[in-house]
Amino acid sequence: MMTVRTTCPYCGVGCGVKATPMAHGAIIEGDPDHMANRGRLCVKGAALGETLDLDGRLLAPAIRDEQGLREAGWDEALAKVASTFAAIVAEHGPDAVALYVSGQLLTEDYYVANKFMKGFIGSANIDTNSRLCMSSSVAGHKRAFGEDLVPGCYEDFELADLIVLVGSNAAWCHPTLFQRIAKARELRPHLRIVAIDPRRTATCESADLHLPIKPGTDVWLFNGLLAYLAHSGAVDSAFIDAHTNGLEAALEAAGECASIEFVARHCGIDPRLLVEFYELFAASDKVVTAFSQGVNQSTSGTDKVNAIINCHLVTGRIGKPGMGPFSLTGQPNAMGGREVGGLANMLAAHLELDQPAHRELVRTFWDAPRIAARPGLKAVEMFRAIEEGGIKAVWIMATNPVASLPDADQVRRALARCELVVVSDMSAATDTAAHAHVLLPALGWGEKDGTVTNSERCISRQRAFLDAPGQARADWWALCQVARRMGFHGFDYRDAHAIFGEHARLSAWRNDETGVPRAFRIDGLAGLSRAGYDGLAPIQWPVGAAGEGSARLFTDGRYAHADGKARFVATVPRAPANPADRAYPIVLNTGRLRDQWHTMTRTGKSPRLANHAPEPCVDLHPHDALLAGVREGELARVSSRWGAMVARVSHGGGIARGSAFIPIHWTGQNASDARVGAVVNPAVDPVSGEPEFKHTPVRIEPFAVA
Ligand code: SF4
């Protein structure tokens, strides 16, 4: 049997995997040569071989008509999608159709989807489930650095003196990176870890200091840190003068937070713990501040990101080994999607939709008949527009919004009234597939071929090692087939290599020919031969013309703003959109479990992964459970102003009084409808459009089985 080097399809760490196909599944090992994991795997990655069977797979296209769902050939299904899209665009304009895609797609799929919508349909109504996990980081990076750039690399965690983990349960959600941190701590005992999280998670248990912050108050905490650093003189004045703008305004916005008591009161943290953290941050030479969904999934998400970056800029701790702000992406290819303009407000190659010169540049490169004239609708807005009738056809790829978007019952209503719902997926048994008029069978991990980019900007190959099952095809292929049936040119790619080459050439052409320099470039990969692409070793962008990668950005102190300087952003603290009240007194937080991934389409196949948490639980403090009249092990109804679900009461999860936690993985396909998305409020960050998954007021009541 031949062993193939590929990349794990789950979290944003992007571990290298060696897969050896067997009669039933595959032998899975960590790739010792991959820079992300150096041979390590977490329990999810190690169980990949148990998830490769064809149970529940969608193996042929299907069309729903008056009699129900029936199998159809590719020709009929593609013709229906193309003709309906074309008719709707002709009658109602390009903004009447939409694509909703996923961080599970490969970069090549993402590239073609964006070219199809933005360059040929002529609408930017293409958004992604990455909107739900890291769009606040994208917006924060752009405000601070002028471009969406993660400055550092995983090695920085091993070189740091202090690692601050904010809203990140890395021990469960980015496990091999956390293993690297644990190993670094053994080798360098002075390394300190501070965890900032409302829950006492597995990550907090391992930390030297846990700040149990009140949900949603991170801007107060980091504004307080900025003020503390400034007033205690722990700043790098030379760096600030040479490489930044805007410190005075940021300090003014942080004004009240100069008082430790004020910050401690707002954040619900013991002032002594706060001072301990501030002193540690000020005194440590090398600091990495890593943040994840606890920061991003907030109506202040973008400000939280900038409040963190401000503290690194004021100390000059960026662009150097062992230091920097670090956004931990959730999905395997959230970063790759950003490279090709995977969000409704972006263009390919890190160009901007709201800049005419950038639009013309991409239109010319694609030889496209038109280009989207303005940013499209972001995820939550998109499904509202579907319900209101503005969008009449939607193509959903590799994601399950009826379970995973906030106010998920609204998404269900939207799809129920949409004229055409196309779903490309591996499975026909998702909440979203139940609404499809056309189902298209997609290749899954181990079957598809392309690239992904992880949190440290490392481009890795996902390689096929299994035959395509049934009639399943690559997502880029289905998009090209529809595009060609709509009369569009430029969609005749032979394979993923041809798409990657075009993507790489766009980044090179943009910088060299048009005078729109961006740090994202992969020039050195533009001329890769088929064999070179097949054998591509993991490499971090920017990749220069000579083919060399880059571990760190900003080493020369130059940023992507026109004046070459980074920006402090004045961040004014504000409370979450929907406060708890008498009717809904508990603040619901949602997130991932250690052993499951998204809505369990793949991880749900492994019994040993299911053992960790066999059913959905609501973690409650015993005091709140008592007040609600529920006991540990009993079923409870969890309701908000948007919807309700049932879960079993648990006192695990290190939950504080007044809070609850429910994992995101269960769906309406389970015995009872266990979609926590139905409960979550749909408020979004005004800058990034990212929903506030971490703060929904709910009521807990006993649930009686009828
Ligand atoms: Fe996969 Fe993430 Fe686990 Fe690595 S840490 S094996 S990428 S789930």
From TrEMBL:
Coiled coil: none annotated. Keywords: 4Fe-4S, Iron, Iron-sulfur, Metal-binding, Molybdenum, Nitrate assimilation, Oxidoreductase. The keyword 4Fe-4S applies. It comes from the Bacteria. Residues 1-56 form the 4Fe-4S Mo/W bis-MGD-type domain. Its cofactor is Mo-bis(molybdopterin guanine dinucleotide); [4Fe-4S] cluster. The keyword 4Fe-4S applies. Belongs to the prokaryotic molybdopterin-containing oxidoreductase family. NasA/NapA/NarB subfamily. This is Molybdopterin-dependent oxidoreductase. It comes from Massilia phyllostachyos. The chain holds residues 1 to 706 of 884 of the full protein.
